[in-house]
């Protein structure tokens, strides 16, 4: 009976460098296409996912029937998965430029336009918690109402991905929805928490401004002499900038008298716990707790990618390291994406048993 079901296939909206696509492909699901407005993602996505078409388009301008005309994607297909991990700058708690991020405010409703047109068997959303904390303004309230009106069953939660085998403290809103018969559930928590040590401790030693000869991605930006001094005085394995706050040469003017604020900035990571959230600027010690636990440098691009659960062989391309860091930081961790995909596969297989 299972053989009567069509193979699952997915469209990955806001695909970025392909974290969600990677996880779904690793689970055996055919990702037909990845859609993104950012041309910087194109080469990275295409190099790692040659069997998936990269569509460089603005979802706000893309016609809903595009996938029907170009790829024969049908309406009401029980085997179709639509993934929508829209850029989250406007709703992240660290965003300080609301006007600049205004275009990303309601991308969820642009994604809904395609869900409404095709009515896929499954819908996946991953985003920052802010979209649920601001349901009306983010469009989530309208999106959930749409799902209910169209008989979709869904499970949603704000969860900490470190509880799901991801070696970083990454809190995200996640939703799985289906219109196929029975309820669908989010992945189960893992028994073991993966730490920074589990993930990057055995990588070769490198210095700030250098790179590993074997793996070019294992490189860290050059630091100024004063920042090297700061890191040398920052205690290893979890130290903070408070160690040099009273040094007039090293203290930063903006942080004077603010010892209890922005404590992660210029801080070192700690071996025996999950890493800080890998953001788009994780390779800069001035943008969070991104100092290596023992070496006097920021974590490398490779270390950030591994903490996002990309495999070592995953290729990243960009005109600058900041562009590559953005691709890595914006990604959905492939390991978590695979868990979502596996839950969908199990649910889809149950349909045949019910029939």
Structure notes:
It is built from twelve helices and seven strands. With 355 residues, the protein is of the alpha/beta class. It has a domain of 203 residues: 3-Layer(aba) Sandwich (Rossmann fold). The protein is elongated and about 70 Å long. It starts with 8 loop residues before the first strand and ends with a helix. The mean pLDDT is 93.
Explain the layout of strands and helices.
Layout: E1 9-13, H1 19-26, E2 30-36, H2 42-48, E3 53-56, H3 66-71, E4 80-84, H4 107-118, E5 122-127, H5 130-133, H6 135-138, H7 140-149, E6 153-160, E7 171-178, H8 196-200, H9 225-233, H10 301-307, H11 321-330, H12 334-354
Parallel strand pairs: 1-2, 1-4, 2-3, 4-5
Antiparallel strand pairs: 5-7, 6-7
Ranges where pLDDT stays below 50 over 5 or more residues in a row are none
- Can you give the mean pLDDT? 93
Sheet with most strands: 7 strands, mixed
Helix run count: 12
What coarse outline follows from CA principal-axis ratios? Answer: elongated
Q: What is the CATH H-level superfamily of one domain?
A: Vaccinia Virus protein VP39
CATH-derived architecture of one domain: 3-Layer(aba) Sandwich
Arrangement of strands in the largest sheet = 3-2-1-4-5-7-6
Percentage of helical residues? 25-40%
Percent strand: 5-15%
What is the CATH topology assignment of one domain?
Rossmann fold
The helix/strand class is alpha/beta
Brief characterization of the structure:
With 355 residues, this protein is α/β, with parallel strands linked by helices. Helices cover 29% and strands 12% of the residues. The protein has a domain at 6-186 and 333-354: 3-Layer(aba) Sandwich (Rossmann fold).
């Amino acid at each position: 009976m299972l053989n009567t079901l069509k193979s699952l296939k997915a469209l990955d909206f806001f695909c970025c460098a392909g974290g969600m696509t990677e996880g779904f492909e690793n689970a055996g699901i055919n990702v037909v296409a990845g859609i993104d407005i950012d041309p910087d993602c194109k080469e990275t996505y295409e190099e790692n996912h040659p069997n998936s078409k990269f569509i460089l388009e603005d979802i706000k301008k893309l016609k809903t029937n595009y996938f029907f005309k170009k790829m024969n994607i049908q309406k009401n297909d029980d085997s179709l998965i639509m993934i929508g991990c829209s850029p989250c700058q406007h709703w992240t708690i660290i965003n300080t430029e609301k006007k600049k991020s205004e275009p990303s405010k309601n991308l969820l409703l642009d994604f809904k336009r395609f869900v409404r047109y095709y009515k896929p068997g499954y819908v996946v959303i991953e985003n920052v918690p802010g979209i649920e904390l601001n349901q009306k303004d983010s469009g989530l309230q309208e999106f959930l109402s749409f799902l209910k009106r169209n008989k979709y069953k869904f499970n949603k939660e704000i969860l900490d991905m470190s509880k799901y085998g991801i070696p970083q403290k990454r809190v995200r809103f996640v939703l799985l929805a289906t219109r196929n018969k029975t309820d669908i559930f989010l992945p189960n928590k893992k028994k073991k928490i993966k730490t920074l040590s589990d993930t990057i401790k055995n990588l070769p030693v490198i210095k700030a401004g250098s790179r590993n000869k074997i793996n070019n991605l294992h490189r860290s930006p050059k630091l100024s002499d004063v920042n090297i001094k700061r890191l040398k005085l920052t205690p290893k394995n979890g130290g903070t900038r408070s160690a040099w706050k009273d040094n007039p040469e090293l203290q930063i003017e903006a942080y004077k008298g603010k010892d209890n604020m922005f404590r992660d900035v210029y801080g070192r990571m700690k071996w025996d716990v999950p890493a800080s959230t890998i953001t788009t600027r994780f390779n800069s010690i001035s943008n969070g707790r991104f100092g290596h636990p023992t070496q006097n440098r920021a974590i490398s691009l490779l270390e950030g990618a591994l903490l996002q659960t990309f495999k070592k062989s995953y290729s990243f391309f960009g005109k600058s390291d900041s562009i590559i860091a953005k691709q890595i930081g914006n990604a959905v961790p492939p390991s978590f994406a695979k868990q979502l995909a596996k839950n969908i596969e199990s649910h889809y297989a149950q349909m045949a048993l019910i029939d």
